[in-house]
Amino acid sequence: MRQQTKIAGIKFSIIFLILGVVIGCGTSGGEETEEQTGEEIEEQIEEQVEDVTITIGNLTDQTGVAAEAMYYIGLALNDVVDYYNQNDLIPGVKLEVINYDEQYDASKDIPGYLKLRQEGADLIWTPVPQAVPVLKPYADKDKFVIFTATANMAESELNGGYIFSLGITPRQEAYTLLKWLAENDEDFPTDRPARFGAAAWNDGYSNLLYAAAEEYAKAHPEQFEWDQTFLTNFNFNWATQAEELKDCDYVFIPTPPHTFMKDFRNAGGTAKFIGSDVPLAFLRFFEKADLWEQADGSLFIRSSRWYNETGDFIDLTNQFLQEKYSAEEAEDILGQGCTYISVKHAYLMLDIVRKAVEEAGAENFGPEALYNAAVSWSYEYEGITDFSNFDQTKRIAQNYYAVYEARASGKDIYRVHEGWLPSVNSP
Fold first, then answer.
1. pTM here?
2. What pLDDT shows up at residue 26?
3. CA dist., res. 38 & res. 343, Å (int)
4. Measured between alpha carbons, how far is 134 from 139 in angstroms, rounded to an integer?
5. Predicted pLDDT at 168
6. pLDDT: is 27 or 302 the higher one?
7. Closest C-alpha to 147, from 412, 334, 373
8. CA within 20 to 30 Å of 356's CA: 47, 164, 227, 363, which one?
9. Residue (of 160, 158, 57, 74) closest to 114 by Cα position
């Protein structure tokens, strides 16, 4: 049991110390003193017992192609950990974070996993999409819990394992977005199927998103016609792909999106751009590349509220921005789009840690206790009891989404419907 012997020793020492003080005060100098009760002694013991440290291993990209976005996700993680510590949200526990730079290189994911565990990580968090399929066999074999921001694997492959996805997942995003477009977008053709296409890097996320969108389109040929999917290896020139896709009605944009959007409009393409939270991590490039007019009307499926709304998680996010950062720093973070909104993911992950400690005790916390807590965890949000949850099989927490529109007039994105959309889980 984690630190049990050490804590027991500390308690016994403190008990004898306090008893000695109480007895001594009660018999010295002939003065009467008020004898402490057992409850008061226990309170003093608890005050002096050291907290158990729970270490979160952050497997991230600090110097690779995704380093800029990952930096702000890391800020969110650290700020939520500080918030939990400062407000004692997990009594008896101190949280800390250790980092490993995998440089957006899949060959470094296993060394990173091993290194973080050697350095004492009790669980691992990773916002790196490509790390999930690499690490899953190791996590399952070792029965070691990994939390991730997105699951770039089929749900059936994740089910029952030790990787838990707290955020978006490409398949449900694609299904939910296309269903919403056909039923709600005023620009969706009414006299013919809408023509869709897509372009991105072969990054382990986009390929799954696009495959699911194509699957949904083919399941509804009366509404959708799938044109082409282009997946490249870190290409920054999209002129050829833009020319091929310019006759589409809707086009999924890559990450980062700005170069493609410019090339597409230069090719004469008039399609409505669509995407998810992933390209929104580079929202500030809309301003830098002077693309707000070209991006106007673009639609994005998202799993959380935006900075210009109110709600528990986004209120906490905006509170951090006001309290922890200067106006200039906060503006920079806002310009990074959705990255800092991963405050939500970090908070939910630590809520599962809290549940594990509550159920097993801080001194008994470990992978088994964390796993047991995770598979029975559910989070209520805005009156929805199962807004996020896991169970014995389910490994994707997100159950609801929303659609947002980019508007050049406000140089921001805005929610286009009330309420939350239930995740569409099959075509």
1. 0.85
2. 39
3. 42
4. 10
5. 83
6. 302
7. 373
8. 47
9. 57
Nearest to 229 by CA among 207, 246, 250, 249: 207
| Contact status, residue 369 vs residue 52, Cβ threshold 8 Å | no
Percent of the chain past pLDDT 70, that is, above it, reads 89
What string of DSSP letters covers 311-373?
A: SHHHHHHHHHHHHHS-HHHHHHHHHTGGGGGGHHHHHHHHHHHHHHHHHH-GGG-SHHHHHHH
Six token digits for residue 85? 């510590």
Give SS3 for 232. Answer: strand
Counting DSSP H helices and E strands in the chain, the numbers are 17, 15
**SS3 at position 392:** coil
Contacts of 369-377 with C-beta under 8 Å, sequence gap 24+, read 370/122, 370/123, 370/145, 371/143, 371/145, 371/162, 374/145, 374/164, 377/351, 377/352
The SS3 of residue 283 is coil
Task: Say how far apart CA 124 and CA 301 lie, in whole Å.
Answer: 27
Strands (DSSP E) found in 75-132:
93-101, 123-126
Judge contact between 271 and 244, C-beta under 8 A: no
